[in-house]
Amino acid sequence: MVHWFRGMFEDPQNEMPYADKEDPGDSPYRYPWGGPYDADEQLQDEFSGIVPIEVIQEAVQEVQSDGTLEWAPGPNHPDQIAAREEAMAEHYDELPPPALEDIQRRIENGVVPSFGNPLEREEREALRRELAELRALLAQDPQPHGGIGHNQPPEQLALTVDLKIEATVAIDEMDAELAKEMPNVEVVVDAAGRLQKVLSWIGKKLDKSVDSFMAAIGSASGVAVVGSVTAQLAGVPVVEKIGQVVGTALHWLNTVTLPF
């Protein structure tokens, strides 16, 4: 019990910031990640019903033997883990996703993908929803679109049969991998690359370079095609959704291949 407690909690003076001088409250420290925790309460919550209360009280006396009565969450405590994951998510949401070439380079350099943490699961589910929506849009007959801001007739932006097949196969392969507990990241990279080629074709139709096209898609967490591309693609939901899928796929690939 003492070993468990010391693995989950620590003296607040190790990491906790001092309380504001103007409003110190009851504690000299602030607890931004949860706490302060009471040893007696925490040990009883964890071990009551498993070991006699007298033994729990002996453990309480042991952990408090140096005079520390208030405890902060240690590095292994769920509060600390959640705070780190939230900070990491906020940090990487502010950065554009890497290119597929960067992801491939990480894999070639020996980075082992990591699956199963809450952020990865959330991003994976978001990507699978985007794939389902894109699959449904591709299955529909092309609809006339207006107001795309280009001198070509709007119907010229409709995907060819070959491109529709290419996009649909890429979607199915990517989704099949994402349904697995341990997806093959290289399959997802390859499928995302083929969707990028579809965007490349559309970009050429719009006299846009692939770089500018993907730069727009990569912003705003891949949620929407932005900037000048938005104006030219207004009313073309299939094209917008392909861009969203590629952007979301890049974010998921970045999350599972972070090199640390």
Strand arrangement across the biggest beta sheet: 1-2
Tally of discrete structural domains: 2
Our Rg estimate from Cα atoms comes to 26 Å
What portion of residues is helical?
A: 55-70%
- Helix and strand composition category: mainly alpha
The share of residues in extended strands comes to under 5%
The end-to-end distance, rounded to whole angstroms, is: 31 Å
Count of strand segments: 2
Helices and strands, in N-to-C order? HEHHEHHHHHHHH
Compute the average pLDDT: 78
**Number of DSSP helices?**
11
In the predicted model, the low-confidence regions spanning at least 5 consecutive residues are 143-157, 216-235
> What does the largest sheet look like?
2 strands, antiparallel
Query: Which overall shape is indicated by the principal axes computed on the Cα atoms?
Result: elongated
Task: Please describe the structure with a list of short key phrases separated by commas or semicolons.
11 helices, mainly alpha, 260 residues, two-stranded antiparallel sheet, 2 domains, single chain
Describe the fold and architecture.
By secondary structure, this protein is an all-alpha fold. The chain folds into 2 domains: 2-88, no CATH class; 97-256, no CATH class. 57% of the residues lie in helices and 2% in strands. The chain has helices at residues 2-8, 39-47, 53-63, 78-93, 100-108, 118-139, 161-178, 185-205, 210-218, 228-233, 237-256; strands at 9-10, 72-73. It has a two-stranded antiparallel sheet with strand order 1-2. Helix 5 packs antiparallel against helix 8. The longest helix is centred in the middle third of the chain and has 22 residues, at 118-139. The two termini are 31 Å apart. Residues 143-157 and 216-235 have low confidence and may be disordered.
